[in-house]
Amino acid sequence: IGELIPPGARFPLEMARDADAGSNSLLTYTLTSDPSFSLTVKEKASGKKQPELVLERALDREKQNSFELVLTAVDSGDPVKSGTVKIRVNVTDANDNPPVFSKSVYDARVAENLPVGSLVLRVRATDADVGINGQVSYSFGNVPDDVSSLFAIDSGSGEVTTVGLLDFEEENQYIFVLEATDGGGLTDHCEVQIDITDENDNAPEITILSLSSPVPEDAPLGTVVALLNVNDPDSGENGQVSCELSGEAPLSIVASPGGSYKVLVLAKALDREEAAFHELVLRAMDGGDPARTGTARIRVVVVDANDNAPAFSQAEYTVRVVEDVPVGSILITVTATDADEG
């Protein structure tokens, strides 16, 4: 910290991270007592609390050139857990202007199919000092691993680019902190919010949950033959799916109230003697532009019911025999057939 920095100046400190949730992750900060410094907490737009070191009185490097402080983060759980970090303040000459970001929050909206290496946004910080004390470099603050695996920042230009493939279905928003540091070690922080927009990059998926096959040919109309789950992880119209059956199928589709499940029911009577099985293709199409489709093949076997009576080959047979025909003689052979099986 430059010795000409006026009292009241604030210096953002590293935020603590707590892997717990709810009240167990609510943090408060304390600082060891020192007349030259105090601690304040700034609440960011995302709700996170940023501890800041506040200079309470003017510094004099010739009297004291360094300070040793301890920052403590305490959660609100029961029992209470805490973490500490040492802060060493070195007093330097004349670098009395920290970098300042042009905005406290930068935001951008990008599509999930953005190619690797694409520019997402550019941040900018200025420093009123000259020479090395006015040269600003950019870096990530304390960010999660999933942020650093997807985004990178150019230390000189402040350009944030993609280094990994984005996926709206996996995460649709990223919020993280960037840091600007001048040649004298002074810093400023800004918050970056990147919203990922959905693209129609997923085709509908059809899962057959249950299938009643074979089906008796005398099964009544409305009999449930199959239960299906149709899912498209995209959002909006890209995830709205309609279904249809191909061919002259004796089945129809009934949607469940929730929309994800479809029921195939008998729409007309079956006749095994006419068709012993039915090969069906179920086609699901989403509402994207262009639309994506998914298909599933279903084979329904029809089993026989005793719905046909035997039938003689002729309705009437006429036989002429002589009166002295021997006993046991064959007079005529009659035949009857039955369309059922077994």
Automatic annotation (TrEMBL):
GO MF annotations, alphabetized: calcium ion binding
Keywords: Calcium, Cell adhesion, Cell membrane, Glycoprotein, Membrane, Repeat, Signal, Transmembrane, Transmembrane helix
SUPFAM superfamilies per the UniProt record, alphabetical: Cadherin-like
PROSITE patterns: CADHERIN_1 (PS00232), CADHERIN_2 (PS50268)
GO annotation, cellular component aspect: plasma membrane
Domain Cadherin: 16-101, 102-206, 207-312
Transmembrane residue ranges: none
Subcellular location: Cell membrane
InterPro entries hit by this protein: Cadherin-like_dom (IPR002126), Cadherin-like_sf (IPR015919), Cadherin_CS (IPR020894), Protocadherin/Cadherin-CA (IPR050174)
Encoding gene per record: Pcdhgb3
Membrane topology of the entry: Single-pass type I membrane protein
A Pfam family matched in the record: Cadherin
CDD domains given in the database record: Cadherin_repeat
Main location as per UniProt: membrane
Protein name per Swiss-Prot or TrEMBL: PCDGF protein
Biological source species: Pycnonotus jocosus (Red-whiskered bulbul)
